[in-house]
Each structure stands twice: as structure tokens, then as C-alpha cells.
Sequence to fold (463 residues):
Amino acid sequence: MEERGSGRLGAEDERRIEELLKGAFGPGSAAASARLPELGEGEADEPARRAFVAGLVEGLDLGSVRRALDSFSEVSGMAMALVSSSGELLVATRWQPICSGFYRAHPRTRRACEETDQAVNAAVIAASAPGAGPAPGPYRYHCANGLREIAQPLFIEGCHWATIYIGQFLYGDEEPDEAGLAREAGELGWDAASFLEAARAVPRFSREEVERALGFCVAFGDLVSRLNHGYYRERRLARHYLEVEKALAGALEQKNFLFAELQHRVKNSLSLIASLLSLEAASQEDERARRAFDDAKGRIRSIALLYERLYRTGSAESVELGPYLSEAARASIASLAGAAPLLELDCAPLRMDSRRAIYLGLVVNELVVNALKYAFAEGRPGRLRIELRAEGGGGLLSVADDGPGLPAGFCLDSEESLGFLILRTLAKQLEGEIEAGVGLDRASGGPPGGGCRGASFVLRFPL
Fold:
């Protein structure tokens, strides 16, 4: 401070100081806010469709589907299969001996079976492509080896993901050509009797029975599709939440790193500025100019201490006031050579957001420097007591000394020196009130009440 009760500044200077403090530490300042970039993502239609189908197939409970189809095949006697849109055989049940033992076992006839499967699957895919029109119904066809089969495509949200097949049967009014079958057995090296026995075992159904079986396939396929789609959506949502959680954790880690780096750099920058001010003060011959540089250095140092504490603790939300104010007071005492009062600290464990804590640290710096200059001038020994406690739902900060006290007629509200203007502005920023009064009793060492009494300043503020 300049002096207790000397040096005059006007209302315009007070307004400028208040705006300076608001701009540096207010809600809209760089020190009070930070922004993270938003992230976005997009998918092409075809990759998204393939991923969708792959997700459905991946999550399909094949065991449950197989048991359901086994039960239906046992009752109906009809072979069934579920094939993905990529051609992967997912489930097959009750295949007829003529297929499993002969047609699918010989290279030539197996190739004919596979060509039929591929042709049907290609037709289903072509008819199911986006923009191809309404979803195709069942495909009724003869396989390459003369057996009847039906393919029913399955869709979810217009997307073909699988096909359910029923087949390896004949209609009841169809009779196999046993003579032709016997010739085929001879050409392929099969035992004719066994082959004909397998051919006679091919089930025959009426057209009504086939339509009922097809109706079951349609209903069953729709049920499986809907359930599978629900499971797919749940899995995808769960993966999405995991990805979001990982992204948030990464963003939080990055934010904490950037926050710590910011505090470290701000502290270093402020320390550099304070050092430059010290050099400038040492080069000044005018005592008032040197004192002004020293005062500015002390204020910057008080702010730097807070950023150093934020860096050490890694906390951006709040600061424990006791240790911070203690450091600020000791740093202020150490900055002025020759002044070494006995420092008494009584700080309750109170916390405050970091922005407002800066204001409180500046208040302590102003009051301690003021006491060092006037209560303990020329190295006079004495006591300096700093007290911080909770009071009435808020906080109370008291800085008292046992020096010569305040001049007669001193009124804090009417003083216009720079130091007191800063004090009043800081109190306003804290939404508090500051008052001056009688300090410590040098004779007894206790509260005011006799002997030479010093000065005290008390700030009450909301927490």
C-alpha cells in the first residue's frame, strides 16, 4: 500500500481497478473457463448395412433357434435351414438321407446343390437390394437334384439379413422316377438299393401342409428377427455407452493434464513477471517508484501462489484457504527485508472456489504488506495475527498487528489511496464487507484492552 491514509485516487480510478479485476478473474475470463472440441462421426450407407447384418448374425442365439427348428421338424417331418445373407449356414435340421448321404456327399451332385443355393441366394439378395421394391416373398423351386424347396427371406427394417429354407420334399401327387434314379446311382457309383431306399424316404406333403409350414416359417422368422434386432440394439447401445465412457475418461484425463499444464505455465509466467518487477524496483532511485514496483510484485506473487497450489493439488474447483493464505502471508513477509514479526495463524478448514480465492489472497497480501510497512517499520519486532473462521454461514478474515495503530479519524470507506481502493474493490468482488478497528494489545499480548493497541482489518464474506 502507499500509506495509511495518504495518496489520493478518484472514482474513475476505482472503476478501472474493478473492471481490471473482473476481466482477469471474472466468470467470462480465460482463467475461469475452458472449452473442449466437439467430436462427430459418420458412416456410409453400405458399410453401415454390412455392419448391421454382421451384428445381427453375431448376436444370434443359434442354440435356441436350433432347438425351435428341431422341434418343428420333429412334428412336421420337414427339413429346415437358416442361412445368412452372406451365404453362411447358421442352422440345419432334419436333412434327408438322400441329401446328406448322397447328393451332398458326391462332388458332382454337391456342386449342383451348391450352384442352386448360390443362384437362389443371389436372387434373394438382388430382390432385397435397396430400391429394388417391396420385400420379396417366398421362393418356391426345384433343386438341381429334383427335390422341392422354399426360401423365405428375413428382413429387419428393410434390410435382408438371413433366409430360412424348408425343403427336401415332394408333393403328395409326385412320384419319383425310380428307373432314372437307378441309372443315376450306377453312373455315380452308388449302391442302387440304398439310394432308392433313401429316395422313397423323401417326405411327401400336401400343398396345404406346405403352406402351413411356410406360415410357421414366416411367423418364426419374424419373431427371431425382432428379438434378434432387440438384442442387437441393446448390444450396440451398450458398446456405445462403453465408447462414450472411454471417450469421457480420455477427455477428463486430457482436461486434467491441460489444466495442470495451464496452472504451471501461468505460475511460471507470473513468477517471471515478479522477478522482472524486482529488477526494475532495484534500478529505481525514487523511493516511491521502488515501493510501487514492490507492491505490484507482491500482488502478482499472491496470484502465482494460488496457481502453484492448484498445480500441486490438481484441483480446479476449489482451494483450501488456510494453507493458501498462510503461504501468501509468509511470502509477503519474506519479500520485505528487515521486517520479521512473529506470525500467528489460526485458520479454520474452509474452502472456496479458485476464482474468489484469488481475491482473498490479494486481500491478505495488501493487509500484510501494509502492516509490515507501518506496524513494523524499520524492523520493529511485534506480532501479526491472521485468523480465518466460519461465521454466520460465511467466512471471516482478520489481520491484526500490535503496532502503533491507525491514525486519528481514520475511515476506511473514505480513504482514496490505491491500496485501500484495491481493498474495497476486492471486498466488493467477494460480496463482502471490510472494516478497520483496534488491533492487538502489545502490553498483555491478548485482545484489545490496555497498553499500546495496534490496527486490525476484518473482512466478512459469503462462502
